[in-house]
Amino acid sequence: MTEDNLYLASTQCKTWSFGPSTLATIRQNTNAAGIRSIKRGWKRARIEASSANTPAVTPIPSSASTPIPGAAPTPSIDPTAIPDPESLTPAEELTLVHYYILRLIDMSDVFSFPSNVKSTACVFLSRFHLHHSVQSYHPKHLIPTILFLATKTENHYIPLSEFCKRVPKLTPEAVLKHEFTVAGGVRWDFDVRHPLRAAEGGIMELLTALAVTANGSSDTGLQALKERLAPNPTRRVQDAHGRMKGFLTKEALVSDVYYHYTPPQVFLGALWLADKDVAEAYIEWRFGENSTMGRVTKKRKRDKRGKDGLVAKDKNGEKEEDTPSEAAKGPPLAPKLLSVIQSCAGMMTDARAFEKTPVEELKRIDKKLHRCQNPQKFLGAGIAIGAGSSDGGPKKPPEDAGARKQVEEGIVVGKADERKRKVEDDLFGGSLPVKV
Amino acid sequence: MSSSASSSATRPSNAAAAAPPTRRTLPFGNGHTPVPASVVEIDDGGGGLSKDNSDDSDIDDPDDINTKTKRKYTKGTAPCYHRRFSSLIKNRKLGEGAYAVVNLGHRRATATDSAVPVAIKKIKVNTEFRDGLSMDAIREVKYLRELHHPNIIALLDVFSSKNQNLCLVLEFLDSDLEMIIKDSSLTLSMADVKSWMLMSLRGLWWCHKAFVLHRDIKPNNLLLSSTGVLKLADFGLARSFADPYRPMTSNVITRWYRPPELFYGAKFYSSAVDIFSLGLVFCELMLRTPFLPGNSDLHQFELICQALGTPTEENWPGVSSLPGYYVPHVDNAAAMVKERGKDFFMNTFIAAGESGVDLLMKMIRLDPRKRCTAREALDVPWFSQEPYPTKPANLPKKGGGKGIEKVGSDLKRKAGELFNSTDDASGRGKKVARKLDFGGGG
């Protein structure tokens, strides 16, 4: 029984770890399912619109002499003439999910929730939309629910009334409405393995070891580590710690590293980004030539910590049989581990691009999504709709105040040059209080 | 074990499984309700059969998966079990409390699998907890989804009923250890006790290995299968531990099994709390009556001091710095009890033999740091000495249908106890209020 076996038994490994291509396939399928559901919605709305627009009631002979006035409004548009909306591509869906993960991080910071709550919430959102298209469930409606659920699963419960007070216009009903949807959507897997614990442990180990070497030690690996981080190794580790936490609570959550790498790998990846020397010296010390603790096992049954994130599947028949002495004979793990760490780090750096997604792009996607999700508005089920729109679709009538309000709540509106901050305010339905 | 069933059940598969398209409202709040083009009639008879109309089956939809899951199970017994559960055919309720109702159900037979009896634990909507899924339910689901072990109850599936009640599909278990202890018609040999202890420790070891504290070990949470296998159940108070700097509530574990550090209000404790509780279960198995049945927290603590010794700096370094440290009869030096030695336990638990007493003493040491871990307990010679642990199948059993009624007995917790501790003395399960740890130990 090793830590690995324990991780291999976790739902995170069993159901939420994939290779990059599998992940892409799943997203593709999810997108396709989303498109199907949009098509169904439109098909139905079309039927409704046609029946509403055509005189549905045949005049009853003799019994009613006068036709009911206004019973059959003349259709101003032909529902069958409007084409199905353009649906979102998997990439567009992903862009939107990433955007809302960033919003979720902001929202969590409003409450000053601990990192584990924040991280769990982000992972929930990501996992939810892995199997459920944003075309079926708009993330904007889900994020308060997800954050609240994360407080409960992470044992950081705050009463819902308190929770709602901190987010403008948020009602308890709105939060609870989607709770089952979200819980079922993450397959009831409430336990998320974060790199945070590994990170704290690793830093503690480094700092403790450095405190020991200060008094002289015979461990050559440790001496090398100390030399590499000279002149002030402790300070260096502490600084790296702070920066690393930043990566773990942002880049790691926005990127797909949780699907591809194990928590310790993510930790080391973040440490590598924070301070290459600290991470490399640490790995060299623990898994390098002079270390006896981590070795590539000869039989290549499983590369301890090395690859099990990527080949998380098929654990059957893998038994931890290697005795420590046997393991020690293999080549050191460090080079292999380092390359894994670097690719993990690379994935996290790439995630930064998401923060730079132009607001226009987000608006464009959301507009598309809005059209997909609201066929009635565009097919004019019973409502006279004025034609003409900038992007080819019919526009909402200015006089229909109710519909307009709905639209404003539903999509990213606002002037084209509005700042991102403003966008996020709109999405929450009001201004968020800035960090407390 | 049925872990395979649970994992396959939760994965979306558009094959085979019946997928009745459901009418539902999408959570956009715009009233748009997509409805499938054709409504396939729900087949209630055989289950698991349907035309795979992939365009209509919306795998994208959690509600739909929920429906699929729900349809895998049905209340009542499968025909093939009618004889075994004859007493329950009319009343399939296994237990009810304010917190949940447990019904006997079964997993419908499919082409490849025959029907399997299950316990369906329906979490009631708590009138006092208006914040959605209750913490108990969340903890139970969270940990049981992760812990797969022969000595831990298996959570087969989770679904929500039409009234948005949470339903946990649990492995069906016949009876519990409390029933065995109370059944005066049964004679328990030391080999039997050893077997139950062995299975409990294995289950507990796995929990602790996965950094989960059970926090409510007591005989009626140790359930027994029809084949005699013991399984840890009721993870409504469980939590993960070993998060640095994160305090935990000390108000857990049923009073009779609560270790001294929790009475002292310790906020940072370890797996040793579960070991202590299990140690007291060990005593109870031998005595056939609770070893320390206190009728109030204060009384309970006095009993601990009398039976095990008075905690002092000498036998428990650092104890006086715990927030609630207190010594009964502090003015009366004569009433202070030194930590009991082996002689005391040998007198009381002679049947366990010397090595059995050694294990017991390691489990119920006052100082939690001196208690053994589950792993160490499993390594003690007692388990490998004669008499060898009885094989589960040969263990004494509570007979027939009578046993079934008790499966839901761990539910007799009051919903209100989440917030206000009631001291209801009627019924053992109610003896001690269960309090919950809400915020990070706050």
Folded structure, characterized:
Chain A: Residues 53-85, 294-333, 386-412 are annotated as: Disordered. Chain A: This is Cyclin-like domain-containing protein. Chain A: Keywords: Cyclin. Chain A: It holds the Pfam family Cyclin_C_2. Chain A: InterPro entries: Cyclin-like_dom, Cyclin-like_sf, Cyclin/Ssn8, Cyclin_C_2. The complex is a heterodimer of chains A (436) and B (442). Chain A is mostly helical and 436 residues long. Chain A is built from 23 helices and no strands. Chain A has helices at 3-8, 11-16, 20-53, 90-111, 115-131, 139-153, 160-166, 172-177, 179-185, 195-213, 220-228, 233-248, 251-254, 257-260, 263-274, 276-287, 324-329, 334-350, 352-355, 359-373, 375-379, 401-410, 420-427. Chain A starts with a helix and ends in a 9-residue tail after the last helix. The model of chain A is unreliable at 56-75, 298-328 and 381-436 (pLDDT under 50). With 442 residues, chain B is α+β, with helices and mostly antiparallel strands. Chain B has a domain at 175-424: Transferase(Phosphotransferase), domain 1 (Orthogonal Bundle), CATH 1.10.510. Chain B is built from 12 helices and 11 strands. In chain B, the strands form 3 sheets. In chain B, strands 1, 2, 3, 4, 5 and 6 form a 6-stranded antiparallel β-sheet that branches. In chain B, helix 5 (190-209) runs antiparallel to helix 7 (272-287). Residues 1-59, 86-90 and 400-442 of chain B have low confidence and may be disordered. At the A-B interface, helix 2, helix 3, helix 6, helix 8 and helix 9 of A face helix 2, helix 3, strand 5 and strand 11 of B.
